[in-house]
């Protein structure tokens, strides 16, 4: 007889994102935290500073957990710069008086990162460098310029944007003394002045400046200006970190970047950064769902509070489930409707819990009801938000129209091209580029065959550097198929 533990409907697996969970139940973030990739420790060791993963992979959870640590560790300082409403286009156009284009954007990011670093330095009472007059003068100038105390990143940028940086930089208009240089308040001179002293900052503490919010940045694949600005951000942070590392300064700017954005950046120096990139990949090497760390994470979440840790899949689910006249292993069945992301998996479990009131072993009917609700209310909306974030509006609308017009879950490039040709209201667009964007979002896959002729799916989360093969048949993600109420055809 199956050992019974608790009413599954009473379990709480957290919120869909870290910000909501922090507000609703911070203990779930603190005590239910899991980092099977040691990304947090790599950041604290100052080894990694570019954190890459899909939306919902847990990047912000790493930041939030480090902020918890900083509350009890007087030698850890963690600041977060949020790009959620940052005017990326405007940054490209600010005239600093010297640099142009991508270099101008990189200089501006470097300056903004340095301002945030000095804001963090100012709170480090034990730092030896805070006793130096040059550092105190920098604080005074930044305060006078309205850049300290540190407010939102957007406000600091708008303060710089409203003045003529060719004539002087806010707070430094009276001129500064730079080693071997005349008094000069030009933007690049001030930036180099801040960089010089940041590189010589001495403290026993660790300072981490996180750049978050890239998950919500709307950027089309043909939006050249924004791609230039984001590439400049990554380059500015990397070069600044290399300078600080070489001078043994325990300070880093940490970039949290959505993987589909990071892999599309036009960066010829990407290989040189690879040693400092930390990547989320929740897919187990052996592809066995029971060995997935997502199950471990779910068990940690629902154990927060009075509940002891339980083997979730063993205690609360039958080994198999019957669905559409086929029998599946329950663990594998649940995982196939996710993209191997914490946000997907935990949201699915919460949805099943809502349909499992007073059930200790969850019934197949409750699993299916929770699955249908998850697919239609959560997954489809996540897909639409992802598509609108990476494609121009009209192109995104056309792509959504095509997806809805597919009769089942399988299609080919030629089928879609034919639909575009016969639809007079649909403007021509780069269909291959749009499909590749959907592939990067984990929404479509190729149907491949192994050496034995068995069909299998090859999503982007199966292969970090994979590409969509436009000559092969394609399939919609199972959760998107159900969410769009399409006829379901099994692969394999």
Distance from N terminus to C terminus (CA atoms, Å) equals 33 Å
Beta-strand residue percentage: 5-15%
Overall shape: it is globular
Our count of helices gives: 21
Radius of gyration: 25 Å
Tally of separate domains: 2
Mean pLDDT: 85
Task: Kindly state the percentage of residues in helix.
Answer: 40-55%
Low-confidence stretches: 178-183
- Major beta sheet summary: 5 strands, parallel
- How would you describe the oligomerization state of the chains in this entry? single chain
Helix/strand-derived category reads alpha/beta
Strand order, sheet with most strands = 2-3-4-1-5
Number of extended strands: 11
Explain what you see:
The chain is of the alpha/beta class and 492 residues long. It has two domains: 37-279, no CATH class; 391-492. It has helices at residues 18-24, 26-31, 39-44, 59-72, 88-93, 101-122, 133-144, 153-161, 187-198, 224-246, 259-262, 270-273, 293-303, 312-315, 330-336, 342-354, 364-390, 393-405, 413-422, 431-440, 478-483; strands at residues 50-53, 76-82, 206-212, 251-258, 277-279, 320-323, 326-329, 410-411, 444-449, 455-458, 474-476. The strands form three sheets. It has a five-stranded parallel sheet, with helices on both faces. A four-stranded antiparallel sheet has the order 8-11-9-10. Strands 6-7 form a two-stranded antiparallel sheet. Helix 6 crosses helix 9 (187-198). Mean pLDDT is 85; it is low at 178-183.
């Amino acid at each position: 007889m199956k050992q019974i533990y608790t009413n599954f409907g009473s379990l709480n697996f957290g919120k869909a994102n870290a910000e909501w969970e922090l507000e609703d139940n911070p203990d779930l973030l603190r005590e239910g935290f899991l980092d099977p990739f040691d990304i947090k420790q790599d950041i604290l060791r100052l080894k990694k500073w570019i954190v890459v993963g899909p939306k919902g992979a847990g990047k912000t959870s790493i930041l939030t957990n480090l902020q918890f640590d900083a509350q009890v560790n007087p030698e850890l300082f963690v600041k977060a710069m949020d790009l959620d409403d940052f005017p990326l286009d405007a940054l490209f156009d600010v005239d600093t008086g010297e640099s142009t284009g991508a270099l101008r954007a990189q200089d501006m990011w470097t300056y903004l990162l340095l301002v945030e670093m000095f804001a963090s330095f100012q709170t480090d009472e034990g730092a030896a460098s805070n006793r130096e007059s040059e550092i105190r003068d920098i604080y005074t100038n930044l305060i006078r310029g309205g850049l300290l105390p540190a407010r939102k990143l957007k406000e600091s940028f708008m303060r710089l944007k409203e003045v003529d940086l060719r004539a002087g930089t806010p707070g430094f208009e009276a001129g500064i003394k730079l080693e071997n240089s005349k008094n000069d308040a030009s933007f690049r001179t001030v930036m180099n002045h801040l960089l010089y002293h940041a590189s010589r900052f001495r403290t026993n503490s660790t300072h981490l400046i996180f750049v978050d919010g890239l998950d919500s940045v709307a950027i089309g694949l043909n939006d050249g200006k924004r791609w230039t600005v984001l590439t400049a951000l990554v380059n500015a942070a990397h070069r600044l970190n290399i300078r600080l590392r070489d001078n043994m300064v325990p300070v880093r700017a940490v970039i949290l970047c959505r993987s589909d954005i990071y892999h599309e950046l036009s960066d010829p120096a990407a290989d040189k950064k690879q040693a400092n990139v930390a990547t989320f990949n929740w897919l187990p090497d052996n592809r066995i769902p029971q060995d997935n760390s997502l199950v471990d994470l779910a068990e940690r979440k629902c154990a927060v509070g009075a509940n002891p840790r339980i083997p979730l899949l063993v205690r609360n689910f039958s080994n198999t489930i019957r669905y559409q006249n086929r029998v599946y292993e329950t663990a594998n069945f649940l995982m196939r409707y996710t993209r191997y992301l914490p946000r997907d998996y935990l949201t699915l479990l919460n949805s099943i819990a809502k349909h499992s009131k007073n059930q200790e072993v969850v019934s197949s009917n409750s699993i299916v009801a929770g699955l249908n609700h998850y697919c239609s209310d959560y997954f489809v909306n996540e897909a639409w938000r992802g598509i609108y974030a990476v494609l121009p509006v009209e192109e995104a609308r056309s792509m959504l129209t095509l997806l809805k017009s597919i009769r089942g879950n399988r299609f080919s490039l030629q089928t879609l091209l034919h639909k575009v040709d016969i639809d007079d209201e649909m403007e021509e667009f780069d269909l291959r580029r749009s499909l590749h964007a959907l592939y990067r979002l984990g929404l479509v896959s190729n149907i491949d065959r192994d050496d034995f002729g068995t069909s299998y799916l090859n999503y982007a989360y199966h292969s970090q550097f994979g590409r969509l093969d436009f000559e092969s048949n394609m399939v919609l993600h199972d959760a998107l198929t159900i969410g769009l109420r399409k006829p379901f055809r099994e692969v394999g």
